């Protein structure tokens, strides 16, 4: 039986980005998941860094503009491991694009920003 694919976009390839990829690649060997996980696109600060991460981490595509992950209808889940100050903008854009968001902690530097992100996600769930 073929499982549906969950296509992942990763923003940020520092320590936590690598930790998320380790989790994505290890989980299917340990757990019976309802999806096959697909490392689709990785975003990093420069085209060179993104391409290095693509090769090293096993992604199919690379970009230096994280917004291309949000705009790509092939990507289902966005894993956000960029600096905390960027989480709000990235998460809100991903939610608006209808993507699942896996955001590293802390969610945002300010509690009000984290609340706004949470309310946006809950509102999206109510409409879909």
Automatic annotation (TrEMBL):
InterPro entries assigned to the protein according to its UniProt record, in alphabetical order: Gfo/Idh/MocA-like_OxRdtase_N, Gfo/Idh/MocA_oxidrdct_glycsds, NAD(P)-bd_dom_sf
Residue span, Gfo/Idh/MocA-like oxidoreductase N-terminal domain: 6-123
Domain of life: Bacteria
Pfam families hit by this protein: GFO_IDH_MocA
SUPFAM superfamilies (UniProt xref): NAD(P)-binding Rossmann-fold domains
Gene3D superfamilies on file: NAD(P)-binding Rossmann-like Domain (3.40.50.720)
Keywords assigned: Oxidoreductase
Protein name, as recorded: Gfo/Idh/MocA family protein
Organism: Tabrizicola soli
């Amino acid at each position: 039986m073929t499982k549906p694919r969950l296509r992942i976009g990763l923003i940020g390839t520092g320590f936590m980005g690598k930790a998320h990829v380790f989790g994505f690649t290890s989980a299917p060997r340990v757990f019976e998941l309802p999806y096959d996980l697909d490392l689709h696109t990785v975003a990093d600060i420069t085209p060179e860094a993104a391409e290095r991460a693509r090769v090293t981490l096993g992604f199919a595509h690379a970009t230096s503009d994280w917004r291309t992950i949000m705009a790509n209808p092939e990507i289902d889940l966005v894993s956000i491991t960029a600096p905390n100050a960027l989480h709000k903008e990235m998460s809100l854009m991903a939610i608006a694009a209808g993507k699942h968001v896996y955001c590293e902690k802390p969610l945002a530097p300010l509690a009000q920003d984290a609340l706004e992100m949470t309310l946006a996600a809950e509102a999206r769930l109510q409409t879909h």
